[in-house]
């Protein structure tokens, strides 16, 4: 699936956002190795911290649906921003945990601007599972 089609799926996912407080919708479309697309949207909560970003919603939904971590090919993320939207730090950490470092990440906005990057480029020097065992060596 090309970047434009995956971004169109992210735009569809954005329409599902639950955003009664910020009114700032974000959509994500996660492509797995079988070619299936998993939608994610941001979901707010009055207490703020229980909310969830679009990227994590897509990843968690895919895994809850039976996909294996690191089995994803690409994710597209879209928001109504001046420049292509970028994932927050928490989402970057989750992507590092659940996706291959070279997985394609397509950042976009509602004007059609796109920027392609990878998980590794979004979170250099990431803390990962191997770091948890380093103190035991």
TrEMBL record:
Gene3D superfamilies, A to Z: Cytidine Deaminase, domain 2
Family, similarity comment: Belongs to the cytidine and deoxycytidylate deaminase family.
SUPFAM superfamilies hit by this protein: Cytidine deaminase-like
Biological source species: Paenibacillus tundrae
CMP/dCMP-type deaminase domain segment(s): 1-130
EC number: 3.5.4.5
Cofactor: Zn(2+)
Protein name as it appears in the record: Cytidine deaminase
């Amino acid at each position: 699936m090309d970047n434009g089609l995956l971004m169109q799926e992210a735009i569809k996912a954005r329409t599902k956002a639950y955003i009664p407080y910020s009114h700032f919708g974000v959509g994500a479309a996660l492509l797995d190795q079988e070619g299936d697309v998993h939608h994610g949207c941001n979901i707010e909560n009055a207490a703020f911290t229980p909310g969830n970003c679009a990227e994590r919603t897509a990843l968690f939904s895919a895994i809850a649906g039976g996909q294996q971590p690191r089995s994803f090919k690409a994710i597209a993320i879209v928001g109504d921003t001046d420049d292509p939207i970028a994932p927050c730090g928490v989402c970057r950490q989750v992507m590092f945990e659940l996706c291959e470092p070279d997985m394609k990440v397509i950042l976009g906005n509602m004007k059609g601007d796109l920027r392609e990057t990878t998980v590794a480029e979004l979170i250099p020097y990431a803390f990962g599972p191997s770091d948890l065992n380093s103190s035991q060596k």
